[in-house]
Design goal:
- The chain has 196 residues and is mostly helical.
- It folds into two domains: 63 residues, Homeodomain-like (Arc Repressor Mutant, subunit A, Orthogonal Bundle); 112 residues, no CATH class.
- It is built from nine helices and no strands.
- The longest helix is centred in the first third of the chain and has 28 residues.
- The radius of gyration is 21 Å and the shape is elongated.
- The N and C termini lie far apart (75 Å).
- Keywords: DNA-binding.
- This is TetR/AcrR family transcriptional regulator.
- InterPro entries: Homeodomain-like_sf, HTH_TetR.
Length: 196
């Protein structure tokens, strides 16, 4: 009889972890589609196939639920943005577009929601990470610049490669991905003074 106890405990632990994963996956999925303020706990519960009480038991609070869900999305984004070697403008633009094509709309919606105290810190992390990535990947193009000039040019490169630039090109202007990538490359190369 006692030999069955560890099995039941392991099965319970696995079921609890599966429920936790489904809850946070459902919350992250909804965050990709809507503003945080427009998502109800009932929506998350339905998506996870559990009750609202289970969502709260798993997450503790609505704020914590979305904090963890945003962390999951940020981890996905970080993994997706690997692959461009420093100085490789083509690979950098392609990688940003891979990311923006998948997450751009949700990022823009999240930016619209940044006055929410739970969302603001996440947006700041995203901005800081974008700047770090731009500096890492495009920084070699600025190697011969004086420090103050480098900082200004880096600001311009951050803007040229930002999600709002993608949104203007793809959503507002209706450009094809190839044309939008070419426009972003042109901006980056013009700013960095490395046009081919």
């Amino acid at each position: 009889m006692n030999s069955a106890r560890p099995y039941r405990m392991r099965a319970r632990a696995e079921a609890a972890e599966d429920t936790r994963r489904r809850v946070f996956d459902a919350a992250a999925g909804l965050l990709r589609q809507r503003l945080r303020a427009d998502i109800r706990l009932e929506d998350v519960a339905t998506g996870a196939g559990v009750t609202v009480q289970t969502v709260l038991r798993v997450a503790g609070s609505k704020a914590e639920l979305f904090r963890v869900a945003f962390e999951h999305i940020l981890a996905e984004i970080a993994g997706q943005l690997q692959g461009a070697e420093p100085g490789d403008v083509d690979a950098a633009v392609r990688t940003w577009f891979d990311h923006y094509e998948q997450f751009g709309d949700v990022v823009v919606r999240t930016l619209a929601d940044e006055t929410d105290p739970a969302v603001g810190p996440i947006v700041e992390v995203g901005r800081a990470k974008h700047r770090q990535r731009v500096d890492h990947v495009l920084g070699p193009l600025l190697a011969n610049r004086a420090a103050d000039e480098r900082a200004r040019v880096l600001d311009a490169l951050v803007c040229a490669s930002d999600v709002y630039t993608w949104k203007l090109l793809r959503r507002d202007f209706g450009r094809s991905r190839a044309d939008a990538e070419a426009a972003m490359r042109l901006m980056i190369e013009s700013i960095a003074g490395s046009r081919r």
